[in-house]
Specification:
- With 335 residues, this protein is of the alpha/beta class.
- It is built from 11 helices and 8 strands.
- Strand 7, helix 10 and strand 8 form a beta-alpha-beta unit.
- Helix 3 crosses helix 6, helix 3 crosses helix 7 and helix 6 runs antiparallel to helix 7.
- The radius of gyration is 25 Å and the shape is globular.
- 40% of the residues are buried.
Length: 335
């Protein structure tokens, strides 16, 4: 037997190398356990639910954030189902930016996640009810009761009841309000870069204010004030600029219109001088083209900007909004 066989001595260099590797392994484990430590170059790790939230995070966070989007380009946000990969991303994030009421699966996943900073864009501005009967007039609301300005930490008490419209990003003014709230939330979560977040927020708000001015000037004098869309995504935009949106379906982009609704739209199109039925890039244009063919109207794209793809009329939010403005001007007969 080899009970008395002498073991070879381990060189000092080997011991030093082993200790170094062990230390590195422990450091890596600690970083993995601590989401903030695992961030690329100590950046704030932000998970955004879909493109409009991603755009805000990137514009406001700049070089100090690492943004991950849950909804893939070309995917209809309403249809998103949370996967194991999404859950892992939420587990590692420092902050989540989402719009409660738009994606129920996201709302549930974020609610159950350990993320410390959860930013619900719907609490940073005012929401209203839009639909086929309300159109662009928002008859059911008293605008004098709306509060705009400093929304930090302020919950407007929305319960996202049926018919409450989540498409706030299509109104540059409301979107700017959300941007201000996001900037404050980032500054609170990452105070070391507060100055950068404040500067970037100010620049974005200025950009959105300029976009608002473009829409006001571009749509103030038109032959018609009524436009038809496949689903009621543009209620806030219509209300902001004195237009009326008539949707084939309601807030659900996959909804099927009733025969009575189609008949009403045909009569309305003739009475109000409507020239165009708008459809969007992420949803089938079949219903829009059917209505257009039956009424002798044209079809065109009005993008709700729920995602940027190769089919988008622009590379980012502002560019696509400007394309939307041109489409509306043409359809409404801007002078």
């Amino acid at each position: 037997m080899n009970a008395r066989r002498r073991r070879p001595l381990i060189p000092t260099l080997a011991l030093t190398t082993a200790a170094t590797l062990a230390t590195a392994a422990l450091t890596a484990c600690s970083a993995k356990d601590d989401p903030a430590a695992s961030n690329n170059e100590d950046k704030l790790d932000v998970v955004a639910s879909f493109y409009p939230m991603e755009y805000l995070a990137e514009q406001i966070g700049g070089e100090h954030v690492e943004v991950t989007r849950l909804t893939e380009p070309g995917q209809e946000p309403h249809d998103l189902e949370i996967s194991a990969k999404h859950t892992a991303q939420l587990e590692e994030a420092d902050a989540a930016l989402y719009l409660k009421g738009l994606q129920p699966s996201v709302d549930e996943a974020i609610g159950q996640s350990p993320i410390k900073t959860k930013i619900d864009a719907a609490t940073l501005t005012s929401l209203e009810k839009h639909g086929n009967e309300v159109g662009g007039h928002a008859d059911e609301h008293d605008h004098e009761e709306e509060t705009h300005g400093d929304h930090e930490g302020h919950d407007h008490g929305h319960d996202h009841a049926d018919g409450e419209d989540p498409h706030i990003w299509l109104d540059p003014v409301r979107y700017a309000e959300v941007a201000e709230g996001v900037g404050k939330a980032f500054a609170k979560a990452d105070p070391d870069h507060r100055a950068a977040y404040e500067k970037n927020t100010k620049a974005l708000v200025k950009k959105l204010t300029g976009l608002d001015t473009e829409f006001k000037n571009g749509l103030k004098d038109t032959e018609s004030k009524v436009f038809i869309t496949t689903h009621a995504a543009f209620g806030y935009l219509a209300e902001r600029y004195g237009l009326t949106e008539e949707a084939i379906s309601g807030l659900d982009p996959e909804g099927e219109p009733s025969a009575a609704r189609v008949k009403d739209l045909q009569k309305m199109a003739k009475a109000d001088g409507v020239t165009t039925v708008f459809y969007e890039t992420l949803v089938s244009d079949k219903t829009a083209k059917t209505l257009a063919d039956d009424t002798g109207l044209k079809t065109a794209v009005l993008d709700p900007i729920e995602g940027i793809t190769d089919k988008s009329q622009g590379d980012d939010y502002v560019q696509v909004m400007r394309s939307n403005l041109k489409a509306l001007q043409k359809a409404l007969g801007a002078k």
